[in-house]
Amino acid sequence: MSDPGEALLRLDNINSFYGPVQVHFDLSLSVQAGQIVCLLGGNASGKSTTMKTILGLQRPRSGTVFFEGQPLTGLTTPQIIRRGIGSVPEARRLFGQMTVRENLLMGAYTRSDKPAIAQDEERVLTLFPRLRERLKQRAGTMSGGEQQMLAMARALMGRPKLICMDEPTMGLSPLFVDRVLELIQAINKEGVTIFMVEQNASLALGIAHYGYVLQTGHIALEGPADELLRDPRIRDAYLGGAAAA
Amino acid sequence: MNMPGLGAWFDYTVNGIVIGNIYAMLAVGLALIYGVANLVNFAHGSVYVVGAYVGWAAITYLGTPLPVTILCVVVVCGLVGVGIERLGLRPLHGSSRIAPLLATIGIALVLDQVVQLIFSPDPRAVPMQVPEWRIPIGGGTIGPLDLLIGGIGLASAAVLYGFLRFTKLGWAVRATAQDSDAAQQMGVDINKVNMAVFAIASALSGISGLLVGMYYNQINPAMSFEATLKGIVALIIGGLGNVPGAIGGSLILGLTESYGIALFGTSYRNLFAFVLLIAMLLWRPNGLFSGRSSLPPEPMTGTFIARSRPFRIPPWAVAGLIVAAALLPLLNNPYVLQIGVNSLLYGMLALSLTLVAGTVGQISLGHAALLAIGGYTSGLLAMDAGWPVAVTIPIAGIVTAGLGTLLVFPAFRLTGHYVSIATLGIGEIVSLVILNWSGLTHGAIGLGGIPPLEVFGYDLGSVEGTYWLCLVILVLLALLQLRLLSSHLGRSWRAIRDDSVAARSYGVSGNRYKALAFGFGGFGAGISGAITAHSYSYINHETFNATLSVLALTMVILGGLGNVMGAVLGATLLIALPEAFRGLAEYRILIYGLVLLLLIRFRPQGLMGTV
């Protein structure tokens, strides 16, 4: 077991490359259990690569990812998922030809406890009532907002300790953005830790406990979310500066 | 064309559906594999042959009843499938998409040869295991075998549907086919999924082989290539990766062939299949059942260029090699010299292919058809028109350049896998047209008594004469190709290969440059085919077959794709080395297959490096 002071997820001095281009320069960050932590950054700042590194889809040249104090080095993505990490990928990546229900059950792929899976399905459908109406519908035929909900519900079905979300509000209508943010908070209240990557700083910091700002592969700024929201540098860079004030 | 009666039509329909069923069991597996692994498995027909022979052996030696026979076939072929996944796919994860395709070609060569070594190349009769009655219906008849094949086809489809729909592994297969990254993020082990899919697909393919053996009451190792091709045609009709589409495509193919035979005769059967293939690739590359008419972009297009620094041979050494080669006849050993002639002729073919496949990135699997066009052009002009050989050979080069380019021109908008499949189909069509156009090509009899080589009265029919002629032509072609590669034209070719979109946006029109490459390549290959025809004095539609195309590709990869010296070296090694171990003659194809497999796995840049 991990010692009590240990973060749930910790990235330690990650250096990663995309072809010949270095993406991360000694990137370190940690996510405390029970929190919502967001990683902010513009295009090409290395946000998505961070997600891929955590999930084992891309290997760093040096540095280590720790989950519950254990290094994830050398594990494949499925093995990492089995440790208790759920993923809501960028652009959702649902199985569009499969039904909503089949997508949910794919989320529980690593589990074999059938009664508990049925229970969780019920729990998730209570949290996302919209999906209950559409259980037999093909996932690809739903609206963007509904798909985002399904992607989150699918991740929950694996009973993860941590869910990694890659730009969960991207491409959604303002109405759905608020709904998705509420749901993220609701999931977090059930005891699931959230690590999310976002471009939209004000929205993400509005629900997060702690935030990191990634700039060209470095952590430029970090702190509790409410402090970051007041930080003039954040306001200038991400919230439209004086105009927003 | 004579119209059969109504009862006969019924029989042709039943026959078409039965054949369609057999194709379906091949094509469904290909679709599953394409779905999860993005790979057209060229070893699929070889597994089908393994299935046929395992079934034959079980019935003949063990006297197994049909259900047990099927079980044997399923188990053995399933294991072969697992092996193909472990050897041909998994180790190549992360390399370009064409690499596993080439690996499955290597595996196909190996499997075919192993079957041939174990069971001999002679055809075998599969003992009948069903009664011989037939039910008359509407003027035609249906026999128990028709019903059995239909039943097994339906049962397999039902089992497969149940597996994909109701089992966890089945969901994982479908999820992987739709988005393998996302499936991994759900905890799906892609390797396990691939292995399961290869096992299932191979088991189905094996059953298909067994059923064919029972239906035609005959099996032979050579039927693997046709099975692979037919499966691919059905797959393309249904749409790559579309499992229900593959079943539909197979039935359409089976009926087309059967009605084609009814109207035009047996020898047109395959011609119909391949014309259907090319038509689909041109007009409906996503299959009949897809709404889209344009192809989805392939993330990494068909190039197989491993980054490497080409090995440079200084000009004096090249000159030395040429002089040494020119002095070879002084050894006065006709046997060695004949190997030299073969190496030079293959060298011309390899030069041509290394330009098309290496420099321009169009992995052609039908290059032997260019030899056939050249050989027939020169042979027919010399025999039937009575023109002097010195004139017919260059004309053969020009005709091949033009005709070859014209034939592949419609395929220029395809990329990656589709190029390989289209060129393979075009190659088969050329061979079938030669077979069926008897008025021009002498049909199945072939060309006999082609006049020997002679230039302006000088007889070059001796081995020495042929050797010197080939050497001069090869050196000239190689120098010309080197010159072209270092010119603006060469840069444009490589630009198209490396990034066709970027090349187009810089104003390089892909089609025109591809046409130039196929034209120049066709010229060299046509001359090689022509000289071959005159020195063999007999050729037929099978002289330049698909195995030869694969051999040429292996030579080119061995030398290093795009590398001129490499092409010549690759040809020389693959022709001369098996001769050095003459005891291994019957293992020759096995060696070629292994060389191809090992190269793709361990040295994709070849001996001399890619350019």
Automatic annotation (TrEMBL), chain A:
<keyword id="KW-0029">Amino-acid transport</keyword>
<dbReference type="InterPro" id="IPR030660">
    <property type="entry name" value="ABC_branched_ATPase_LivF/BraG"/>
</dbReference>
<keyword id="KW-0547">Nucleotide-binding</keyword>
<dbReference type="InterPro" id="IPR003593">
    <property type="entry name" value="AAA+_ATPase"/>
</dbReference>
<dbReference type="GO" id="GO:0015658">
    <property type="term" value="F:branched-chain amino acid transmembrane transporter activity"/>
</dbReference>
<protein>
    <submittedName>
        <fullName>Amino acid/amide ABC transporter ATP-binding protein 2 (HAAT family)</fullName>
    </submittedName>
</protein>
<dbReference type="GO" id="GO:0015807">
    <property type="term" value="P:L-amino acid transport"/>
</dbReference>
<dbReference type="GO" id="GO:0005524">
    <property type="term" value="F:ATP binding"/>
</dbReference>
<dbReference type="InterPro" id="IPR003439">
    <property type="entry name" value="ABC_transporter-like_ATP-bd"/>
</dbReference>
<dbReference type="Pfam" id="PF00005">
    <property type="entry name" value="ABC_tran"/>
</dbReference>
<dbReference type="InterPro" id="IPR017871">
    <property type="entry name" value="ABC_transporter-like_CS"/>
</dbReference>
<dbReference type="GO" id="GO:0016887">
    <property type="term" value="F:ATP hydrolysis activity"/>
</dbReference>
<keyword id="KW-0813">Transport</keyword>
<dbReference type="InterPro" id="IPR052156">
    <property type="entry name" value="BCAA_Transport_ATP-bd_LivF"/>
</dbReference>
<dbReference type="InterPro" id="IPR027417">
    <property type="entry name" value="P-loop_NTPase"/>
</dbReference>
<keyword id="KW-0067">ATP-binding</keyword>
<feature type="domain" description="ABC transporter">
    <location>
        <begin position="9"/>
        <end position="241"/>
    </location>
</feature>
<comment type="similarity">
    <text>Belongs to the ABC transporter superfamily.</text>
</comment>
From TrEMBL, chain B:
<feature type="transmembrane region" description="Helical">
    <location>
        <begin position="589"/>
        <end position="608"/>
    </location>
</feature>
<feature type="transmembrane region" description="Helical">
    <location>
        <begin position="421"/>
        <end position="445"/>
    </location>
</feature>
<feature type="transmembrane region" description="Helical">
    <location>
        <begin position="195"/>
        <end position="216"/>
    </location>
</feature>
<feature type="transmembrane region" description="Helical">
    <location>
        <begin position="267"/>
        <end position="283"/>
    </location>
</feature>
<feature type="transmembrane region" description="Helical">
    <location>
        <begin position="515"/>
        <end position="539"/>
    </location>
</feature>
<dbReference type="GO" id="GO:0015658">
    <property type="term" value="F:branched-chain amino acid transmembrane transporter activity"/>
</dbReference>
<keyword id="KW-0812">Transmembrane</keyword>
<feature type="transmembrane region" description="Helical">
    <location>
        <begin position="42"/>
        <end position="62"/>
    </location>
</feature>
<feature type="transmembrane region" description="Helical">
    <location>
        <begin position="343"/>
        <end position="365"/>
    </location>
</feature>
<dbReference type="InterPro" id="IPR043428">
    <property type="entry name" value="LivM-like"/>
</dbReference>
<dbReference type="InterPro" id="IPR001851">
    <property type="entry name" value="ABC_transp_permease"/>
</dbReference>
<dbReference type="Pfam" id="PF02653">
    <property type="entry name" value="BPD_transp_2"/>
</dbReference>
<feature type="transmembrane region" description="Helical">
    <location>
        <begin position="465"/>
        <end position="485"/>
    </location>
</feature>
<keyword id="KW-0472">Membrane</keyword>
<feature type="transmembrane region" description="Helical">
    <location>
        <begin position="68"/>
        <end position="89"/>
    </location>
</feature>
<keyword id="KW-1133">Transmembrane helix</keyword>
<keyword id="KW-1003">Cell membrane</keyword>
<feature type="transmembrane region" description="Helical">
    <location>
        <begin position="313"/>
        <end position="331"/>
    </location>
</feature>
<feature type="transmembrane region" description="Helical">
    <location>
        <begin position="101"/>
        <end position="119"/>
    </location>
</feature>
<protein>
    <submittedName>
        <fullName>Branched-chain amino acid transport system permease protein</fullName>
    </submittedName>
</protein>
<feature type="transmembrane region" description="Helical">
    <location>
        <begin position="551"/>
        <end position="577"/>
    </location>
</feature>
<feature type="transmembrane region" description="Helical">
    <location>
        <begin position="231"/>
        <end position="255"/>
    </location>
</feature>
